[in-house]
Amino acid sequence: MHSVATPVRSLTSAASDPVPSRYAVNVGDIEVLVISDGILPLPTVTMAHNAKPADLSNWLEYMYMPPDQYDWPLNVMVVRSGEQTILVDAGLGVQFPDFPRAGQLPQRLAAAGIALSSLTDVVITHMHMDHVGGLLVDGVKGQLNPELRIHVSSKELAFWRDPDFSRVSMPEAVPPVLRSTAKRFAEEYSDFIRPFDGDTHQVAPGVVARVTGGHTPGHCVVDLKSGEERLSFLGDAVFPVAFDHPEWFNGFEHDPETAARVRLDLFRELAANGSLMVATHLPFPSVGHVAVDGDAFRWVPVIWDF
Ligand SMILES: [Zn+2]
Known about the structure:
The chain is of the alpha/beta class. The chain has a single domain (3-301), classed as 4-Layer Sandwich (Metallo-beta-lactamase, Chain A), CATH 3.60.15. 23% of the residues lie in helices and 28% in strands. It contains 8 helices and 14 strands. A 7-stranded mixed β-sheet has the order 1-2-3-4-5-6-7. Strands 8-9-10-11-12 form a 5-stranded mixed β-sheet, with no helix packed on it. A hairpin with a 2-residue loop joins strand 13 (288-293) and strand 14 (296-301). The radius of gyration is 19 Å and the shape is globular.
């Protein structure tokens, strides 16, 4: 007789979620779950504020995207390595009322059978609200393990004490919320935050945070390696438009020239070593490879493994 496993997901949550919000992939011995925090609408100009308007509108049309506003996917990742369960970024939360379709992380972690209390570590790629906001949702902090370690680069924490917004290009209402959310996160989680110095920081066996800068001065990616298998979570170093136009500046980049250079370096690196990648704002589940041909890059999504 075969035993039948009890489904983790209840019928109620399955019925209320018409599309999947989690995708599992193994990287050697490391277990990875990509979880969608939802999507948020943004003006299209924020994806390319140094592009000629005609070039951007041509690209949007070519991509079957609407001219003025587009939906920005938002993904986080849960990583199990050894005894550790690591959340990489925390989604949007509910800081900003204009984004009701994102900020789903607490429910979706629960639906995936991951209790907040089971997390041993959180890695924050950077302190924008769509990456820390989920930790500020009412009731979340109280469910976390009091021993939880939140890894943030020292550079990132220092930047948000007096952030420079002179090079960004965002809707007017956004910068004040980014400032207040980062400040609130640093204050409310000061007992949990483990700042790290240097360019790389090992979080768990085969799990390393690597500071790239660019998007924000302390922005990091998270590299997973087990045996010969690799996956990098690229945070906000890469957006969907970047495969066609890596040189276009995203409005959320605090140092756009460095951000563009980081993006190209990561593309070349991942194309050379064959690593899988996941990025916060690529369409869910955003698991795939980078293909390169000279200076042209292409996104190659994996075929879903059921
Ligand atoms: Zn982001």
